[in-house]
Amino acid sequence: SYEMTQPPSVSVSPGQTASITCSGDKLGDKYVSWYQQKPGQSPVLVIYQDRKRPSGIPERFSGSNSGNTATLTISGTQAMDEADYYCQTWDSSAVVFGGGTKVTVL
Amino acid sequence: EVQLVESGGGLVQPGGSLRLSCTASGFTFSDYWMSWVRQAPGKGLEGVANIKQDGSEKYYVDSVKGRFTISRDNAKNSLYLQMNSLRAEDTAVYYCTRPLSTVTTVSEYWGQGTLVTVSS
Questions:
Q1: Sequential pLDDT tens for chain B (120 residues)
Q2: Which of A19, A61, B57, B83 is the most buried (most CB within 10 A)?
Q3: Which DSSP category does B63 fall into?
Q4: Rounded to whole angstroms, what are the CA distances from B37 to A53, A106, B115?
């Protein structure tokens, strides 16, 4: 089965840029979505089709996908961005999630 | 306003069965693929099953194939997950999700989740 790997944690200072990677075999050939989940809450879609933002998602969230790696970038990170982030794709009609990355805003 | 409300979770013994329901409102239910996603305590997200608009296509994660059945009743705006032969590793919060459009399966809307605990 298809697997995607994320770093367990990323730390960032307020106002700086956080980059969260998601790696998988030929991931660049697939569409990737990203979800944000805060403690005790349901996930929120922040990026889909590699780089598109749903309505209401701030412009500081951006995405890219090439080769074997997709990246979620949070520019000008704010304290409210502290959360778990999951990448997601499809493989043979199955939904696949990465293991998740905890973003800490120090 | 799109709303997804899950119900049916609870405590069940290993080997037992449970049926989850998701009641949808605020959109034309029959126009969308629907999905179940779960999250074990303190763990990540896992796609469990999804179903096409008319129920003609269904997909399952390998770990639940043969044990879980996804279904829908478009007349009742409801999605279901019949879970049989439950195992401890099925313990999780189960979310009902709806895609962001009728031509994609990317989950944009999520319910609040219902907790399933499999334990003796």
A1: 999 999 999 999 999 999 999 999 999 999 999 999 999 999 999 999 999 999 999 999 999 999 999 999 999 999 999 999 999 999 999 999 999 888 888 899 999 999 999 999
A2: B83
A3: G
A4: 21, 31, 12
Test mutation, A2, A95, A96, A102, chain B, max B CBs within 10 A: A95
**Which of A66, A77, A1, A61 lies closest to A32 in space, CA to CA?**
A66
A84 residue type, one letter = D
**Residue in the structure block whose two tokens are 């990246």:** A71
Residue A42, chain B, CB below 8 Å: the answer is yes
Contact A43 B104 (CB under 8 A): no
- Cβ proximity of B87 and B63 under 8 Å: no
Choosing among B52, B62, B106, which should be mutated to test the A contact, i.e. which has the most A CBs within 10 A? B106
Which residue in B45, B59, B100 is closest to A43 by CB distance? B45
